[in-house]
Amino acid sequence: MKIEVMIVEDDTRIAEINSRFTKKVEGFEVIAIATTGEQAIELLEIIQPQLVLLDVYLPDMKGTELIKSIRQTNPEIDIIMITAASEVDIVGHSLRSGVSDYIVKPVTFDRFKNSLENYQKKLEKLNYNENLSQDEIASLWRNSQQENSFVVGEEAPKGIDPLTLNKILNYLPQVKEEGITSEMLSKESGVSRSTARRYLEYLISQKKVYADLVYGNVGRPERRYFRTKHL
Question: Which residue numbers delimit the Response regulatory domain (predicted)?
Answer without folding.
Answer: 4-120
